Amino acid sequence: MQLHEMSIDAFQARLATGEAEPLDWWQTCRERIAAREPEVQAWEFLGPEVEQVPAEGALRGVPVGIKDIIDTCDMPTAWGTGGYLKSDGALVDAAVVTLLQQQGALMMGKTVSTEFAYFTPGKTRNPHDISRTPGGSSSGSAAAVADGMAPLALGTQTAGSIIRPASYCGIYGFKPTFGTVSMAGIKPFAPSLDTLGWFARHIEDICTTYSTLTRAPAIEALPDLSGIRVGVRSLPGDETLSADVIQALRQAHERFEQAGASVFALPLDIRFDALVEHQKVVLAYEAAQSLASEYQRHAHQMGPTLVELIQQGQALTYARYREGQIATAELRQVLSRSFEEEVDVVLAASAPGVAPRGLDATGDPLFCRAWTLLGVPCLNLPIGQGEQGLPVGVQLIGDRYGDDRLLSIARTLMRSPAG
Amino acid sequence: MQLHEMSIDAFQARLATGEAEPLDWWQTCRERIAAREPEVQAWEFLGPEVEQVPAEGALRGVPVGIKDIIDTCDMPTAWGTGGYLKSDGALVDAAVVTLLQQQGALMMGKTVSTEFAYFTPGKTRNPHDISRTPGGSSSGSAAAVADGMAPLALGTQTAGSIIRPASYCGIYGFKPTFGTVSMAGIKPFAPSLDTLGWFARHIEDICTTYSTLTRAPAIEALPDLSGIRVGVRSLPGDETLSADVIQALRQAHERFEQAGASVFALPLDIRFDALVEHQKVVLAYEAAQSLASEYQRHAHQMGPTLVELIQQGQALTYARYREGQIATAELRQVLSRSFEEEVDVVLAASAPGVAPRGLDATGDPLFCRAWTLLGVPCLNLPIGQGEQGLPVGVQLIGDRYGDDRLLSIARTLMRSPAG
């Protein structure tokens, strides 16, 4: 197996036996970047060469891409603004940077983000077809991982900024339960929604990163999925799905059944249908507040979609915002009861279809909005194929704080032979 | 009435009639600071002189103290570290600074905070007795407002950092519902708990600031409090209260009854008793994550209480943290049902008693921990007197997102003649 195709645990095993040197993965990724970056354009800034690798840690020698809305001391941060707001180096690294470094990870560089992680695209292209968007807002992180430039990269999700690019780029993308990993040192956009997550090419690497960052026990695969109840339900509902997505969901469905799980259509209370709209309200209201200072100074330099969002948020009443928050708090409990009583994991659409053509937009986060608002863990599985063989993912969703269960089921599923 | 004793609305009325000039309040506060700062030591940094006041805004000409964990461009920020971490000026102001300035408020300076808003005290003294602590972590903001150095000052609360100093300093302190005002540009400590709030000498000013920052309708007083149900319940329970606090609660109780409200002992589910411990767990776990980078570089310069907290947090399991979060989410809904069905406002202890002697500690946030974890709005009423005539507050607590109702009841109560 090529080094850039290896899993984190496999690399650690090679390090332990002396078959690999601590800087091998870093060098392989640098070479890959040198070859591919002119086409893919995943990086805003490449970090300095690493000279020493920490002696220990679950992520020893693992190169990581850092989304460019995450503060770093020894690399600039520009929040996807193209430079109208730019720090040459933060006073303090974002917490997650230190937490990763303490486990031996190596900071490869800053990956391209849309403007403040909203919709104005950066330069990055989809490695599967460079005439298409990689999705956003974590565009560079998804493209870098999909293209073998880094085995692991950080993203954030406020609407669909991890799951959608993971689906478009054909990789795993994981948004853990809201609040799982500290956002300290990451610019807030809509703080009720903003969640740190990560991309990888292996489900095992998603799991290793989760248990490393939370210091929770390692995620084990189950013997099989017998007894596991899979509820199929997209938000918004199934009547809006494209043929590509229906096909990907069917593949996932069959694979679950082959592994012993039972699959059924999950009935959800009619109130869940309002969540997409509530998410838009919460996002706009909070973004208008959070970016008040940036808007005050830089509105004339901002992209029109961001200006429009902030103005929408300014026009919203607090009463409408509150309505969304109160309805959501109630539905979080309703969904938790459903996870307690009738379902182990929800299977849902990740995105409307394959990555759209063009680099002037990053696609629609529609199928992620409600789940992000609910704060539940979401995992994109790179399982389907659409037109021209382009990737179409599906997402698995777990209960709030049920990340370990979700990942364990996913790990078992993806180890099972495909149907 | 002296200018420094005036309410915001009264000052706006004088501006409108030409009886006051826009910079009058600023000048009065500067004079007060010049006279009193050597004793009180509320300020970490005094801002530059203001030369022009915005032409409009609900807070036009109102000087505001900014807690020194809140980013500012034209003033340094040192997060209560005494300088081992210090920014000479942030790239972007914290969102709340811009939101206040857009309403015409004037930034007076940065007020003293404990170290990262935890327990290591700054230099500030209690204006009522300079041998005593003003409380913390928002020490300078509370002392400045209590001493007439500013009519309004910002604080943050993660355990009891607004309510406790307000109680010790004999002023109003308001922690709105979690998430009400953006924390963008404010260093996170425990992001599930950290809440921005403010201090004032008038309940009307607490209300004006709330409706200005949320752009919600103005808070009106009710004709009287008949029909209002006041549930008395401290967390932890009443058996732990000191004589001073019991006396203050009795005064509030009587005043409510005189205004027509009915007062009763609120029964709360036994599970609420676990919230104080859950709050400590959530706080330590999140602080260890959020301050990972600061700890990595500056542990040797940190105060021992902060180091101990971070080490406690590092030793906690994710499973224990999750247990606290899940229990809290459930109890938030239980409490909301109680607000829907049986109670309009909860009356509770703010602090264990009057401000403790000495400047080497800032007192105990015990009686605020559970409410902060629940995310409900809390308002300190400066209503009682303890030994040597020192202030003892009580807090009123409303339902999550029921801030307007809570403030309206408080405004009505405090207008009613004291018993």
UniProtKB/TrEMBL annotation, chains A, B:
It comes from the Bacteria. The keyword Transferase applies. GO terms for molecular function: transferase activity. Keywords: Transferase. PANTHER family: GLUTAMYL-TRNA(GLN) AMIDOTRANSFERASE SUBUNIT A, TRANSAMIDASE. This is Asp-tRNAAsn/Glu-tRNAGln amidotransferase A subunit. It comes from Halomonas korlensis. Pfam families: Amidase. Residues 55-407 form the Amidase domain.
